[in-house]
Amino acid sequence: MIISDINPFVRFAGRFFYHPTKYEVLSYDSRIVMLLSDELKMKVGNSEMNLKKGDLVYWPPGTPYIFLGPESFEVIVIDFDFDRRGAAKNKSIPTIKKEKYEKEKAIFEAFSDVTAFNESFTLEGVDFIISEAKELVRENSAKTLYYKERTSAHLKLILTDMAKTQATGSKKSLAATERIIKYIEENYSRKIKNSELSELVNYHEYHINRLMKAHTGYSLHEYIIRYRISAAKKLLLSGGKSIAEIAEETGFDSPAHFSSAFRGRTGETPGAYKKKMLL
């Protein structure tokens, strides 16, 4: 499976006060727990962890886990599948003791791109994800028209945010990347220097490139070029402007540079693209 193929199925979602459990259990679907209380000690797989308010823990099927304390704690719990192959089982699937677990019943296909989802992991201080989870829980509780589709959409946002945050290791780096992207959207028509982006988010220029690659799949330079081409396509279809004018308005050094970059990424010249789309 790859991340673009996910079509999440929310089997169970709620906000609860829990208590410590007596022994380790395993689940047949994937699980997310988000802590709303001040602290929680638990063990997931071989890792014992001390969670703080705003932290998130994810684990795939077949991962043993146990809540260790305190005596009472509030969490958001989501039981889910990454696709809808197990949707016939539309109620919470009971956990089971390790010695009785049957691996072949697990509802999961390993990821080839976001391999982090193949194992358990923790994210710290992800309040922006928890806000989305609260909306998911609200939709799931209300059960209004199309709630299954809406909870699936909320969970897809949560999972992609988890993947992005996990890839870079912190909420701060995700926020920095989003700020860079917004800056590019507002300033693509002029030359953007790496130094000004570095100053904007207080990261070294080299690290900015790594952040962009992790979050978008493209280097900083490539992301800017592709954004300019996207803007140029709109201008080409609006009519009335020459290739030279569009090149200048979208931040390219020259019409030749614009045409070369456009053809290299679309397989056709700006003129050919315009002619094809306006037929």
Distance N to C terminus: 38 Å
Pattern of helices and strands: EEEEEEEEEEHHHHHHHHH
Shape: elongated
Q: What is the class of the largest domain in the CATH system?
A: Mainly Beta
Low-pLDDT regions: none
Tell me the number of structural domains. 2
CATH homology group of the largest domain: Regulatory protein AraC
Q: Number of DSSP strands?
A: 10
Side by side, the strands of the main sheet go 1-8-3-6-10
Mean pLDDT: 93
Helix content: 40-55%
Compact overview of the structure:
With 279 residues, the protein is α+β, with helices and mostly antiparallel strands. The chain is 43% helix and 19% strand. It is elongated and about 70 Å long.
Describe this structure in words.
This protein has 279 residues and is an alpha+beta fold. It is built from nine helices and ten strands. The chain folds into two domains: 3-169, Regulatory protein AraC (Jelly Rolls, Sandwich), CATH 2.60.120; 172-277, Homeodomain-like (Arc Repressor Mutant, subunit A). It has helices at residues 127-142, 147-168, 171-187, 194-201, 205-216, 220-238, 243-249, 255-266, 270-277; strands spanning 9-18, 25-26, 30-35, 39-44, 47-52, 56-59, 65-69, 73-81, 96-97, 121-123. Helix 1 packs antiparallel against helix 2 (147-168), helix 3 packs across helix 5 (205-216) and helix 7 (243-249) packs across helix 8. The longest helix is centred in the middle third of the chain and has 22 residues, at 147-168.
Characteristic terms for this protein:
single chain, Jelly Rolls, Arc Repressor Mutant, subunit A, 2 domains, 5-stranded antiparallel β-sheet, 3-stranded antiparallel β-sheet, 19% strand
